[in-house]
Amino acid sequence: SSSSQSFSLPAEMSRSYTNTTGGPSASVSAATTSDTLLKVHSVDFLKSKDGPNRREHHTDVYFSDKLIIRRGQTFQMWIEFSRPFNPKSDKLELQLKLGDSSTGILISVPLVNVLEDRRWEMKIVEQKDKRVRLAVNTLPSASIGCYKVTVESFSPRGKLLFPCTPNDVYLLFNPWCEDDAVYLDNEAERKEYVLNSMGRIYYGTVQQIGTRTWNFAQFEQDILEACLFILERGQVAMTEWRDPVIVSRMVSALVTRHRGEAIMYIIWKIMCFLNLKPHKHISLHQNSLRSCFRPILLHFCKLQTNNNKTLYINFPCRNFHVWNESWMTRPDLPAGYGGWQVVDATPQEPSQGSYRCGPTSIFAVRNGQVTLKFDTPFVFAEVNSDRIYWQKKTDGSFSQVRVEKNTIGQSISTKAVGSDARVDITHLYKYPEGSAEERIAVERASRFGTKPTLYPSPTSNDVSVEILMDGAGPLIGGDAKLSIVLKNKSSSQRTASLLYEVMVMYYTGVLKTTVKKDKIPLTLRPQETKTIPWTLQYKEYMNHLVDQGALKLTVTGRVNETQQILAKEFNFRLRTPDLIITPQGDAVVGKELTVKITFQNPLSQVLRNVLFRIEGLAMQSVRKIAYGDVDKLATVTLTEKFIPTVAGPQKLLASMDCRLLTQVHGVANIVVRPK
User: Fold this and answer.
1) Residues involved in catalysis
2) Closest Cα partner for 299 from 203, 200, 211, 384?
3) What angle do CA 272, 273, 276 make, to 5 degrees?
4) How far apart are CA 61 and CA 40, in angstroms?
5) Do 204 and 319 contact (CB within 8 A), yes or no?
6) Residue 332 belongs to what H/E stretch?
7) How far is CA 125 from CA 55, 112, 120, 593, 636, in A?
8) Please, which residues bridge with residue 642 across strands?
9) pTM for the model
10) Which residues are annotated as a binding site?
11) Phi and psi (nearest 5°) for 161?
12) In this structure, what DSSP letter does residue 439 have?
């Protein structure tokens, strides 16, 4: 339904028609039959700020007269032709071009009868004389950027091209689209982190946290164009602009790039030339780049760090630092490490040859998973370092005079959703100081640092931990029961305190919230294998599930006798019930067939606005049934009638969907006999 390829544009592209029939330009008469060329007279992108496109795509806040849309969502446009469009003999196609070099992208958008999600497609939804209104689907994984659009019209007489210059289309990431990698399911957070143009910046010390308003100014005139211009300097193929992981990493490098090319370097030079003070600069346009950026402040004092969380002080120093967090999935990491990612535009060390930092999963930072990309050791050190005071001797050497353990990474703060209050999010970056979880995370990280022996290595690794699940796994609506199996392979007793945490997870691998956490004391006799039953009750998770009912159970601990660290992660989902599809009698071509579809609500909650979908059996469209509400634990039966049109083996598919329960399906194999 679409194509993507590299291309080169001609040196000039004028706003004219090209007759591709092979002969000289034809003179188009005023006739309205399909025997004449189908010429495009005008294109209306419905791009006004108060129009449906800008409102529905949440881009009406931009001070721009351009069409700004979000990917994975439909937009509408009008085309006026030289004669009425004839769907039987005429054809239509859009060509979208991103970039103007060999690294660009060319996308063909075909005209179809029925729009399908996750495709580049368009459909005529209204026709008035010589005008047609199109609904155009965009791909939720399309590259962001400024697209040039050309309309291709086909008729029996030939093809004509209509470049829509200067009416370019700006395509952005879409936190409102469930199939987009930056999807955020909380409307209040979308308004705060995407649509709010004013934020708060915090400064000072832990004891005296100052605050002032921060004007992001991301919607001001020409800022969007400037941001895309900056991305073009990133020397990354535009096919990679679809990935927020790559885009955010590119932005970090561009902002802090050395050799005088960095945005911050240029701004700093301009401010110095104009004798402006940084603390008076309240409109920071460089922070307008997309992906739900939210400003983060970390109170700390730092010049150098290493993976062993040691900080070397050389006064004078900063006492706070600012970075961004960006919300996205992380398909390049294990499940559970998506969500908020650190993106630091002013890092103090290079990463893969350039000064940049991130995106770094804050869940990886919290658990000391410093082997996960990108730049987790650096961010871990930023929030977990010790402050060490050194004294310079007369011979030039240094001696350590004092160590402060709990001064770095305090009061990590951000603006509250919907208010100007300060929210402390330190707990998202690390466990409480001195807790068993925090010590385990620090030691795990230190084993991969430049001083892996900073903490004593375990004298033995003779205890194993596994998490097991019976059969196909727990059903939604009931208690989830797993087993934690520990085995002592030594000839001595082993004791430990296990810490477990279970979190709700989106199907994209993004963690939503912690449902339950607790400790389990453990004693293992020599050579003993112990199975600990673990249960998550329905009442504990019933109000927290999302999409496919996925959860992550993490178990950590330390063996007291050997200092061995125990760690295990286990992803599982709560299975949904099947729809039971039962044909009543034989299926014959041209003869009415009755089918019963049975569904039982597994939840002790009422299901609101239940929608059934039925397809297959050679039907040309999906049958939708808005059922309404289903009472808790109730059973409902639908009776539907069909007239098969094709003989042979067929399948009839049904699905049920509502806010509390998704992924409910059923299928029946039906052999249709000929008349």
Assistant:
1) 292, 321, 344
2) 203
3) 50
4) 31
5) yes
6) none
7) 19, 11, 16, 33, 36
8) 593
9) 0.72
10) 384, 386, 433, 438
11) -110, 135
12) H
Report residue 597: phi and psi, to 5°: -120, 120
Rounded Cα gap, residues 346 and 323, in angstroms:
8
Joined together, the tokens standing for residue 641 give 């009638």
Q: In what order do the strands lie in the sheet with 121-128?
A: 40-44, 75-81, 131-137, 121-128
Assess contact for 185 and 175: CB atoms under 8 A: no
Mean pLDDT of 536-540: 93
Sheet of 664-673, strand order: 587-588, 664-673, 648-657, 607-616, 623-630
- φ/ψ (deg, to 5) at 250: -65, -40
CA distance 536 to 556: 17
Cα 124 to Cα 94: distance, rounded to the nearest angstrom: 13
Strands (E), 216-312: 294-299, 304-305, 310-312
Distance CA 197, CA 216 (A): 5
* CA distance between the termini of the chain: 36
CA–CA gap between residue 554 and residue 571 (Å, rounded): 9
Please write the tens of the pLDDT for every residue from 150-199. Answer: 999 999 989 999 999 888 999 999 999 999 999 999 999 999 999 998 88
* Block residue for tokens 């869940």: 363
Binding positions for Ca(2+) are: 384, 386, 433, 438
Distance CA 527, CA 520 (A): 20
Residues 443-469 have pLDDT tens digits of 888 877 666 666 666 778 899 999 998
Pairing of β 294-299 and β 410-415: antiparallel
- Rounded CA separation 383/362 (Å): 11
> How many angstroms separate the CA atoms of 227 and 287, rounded?
9
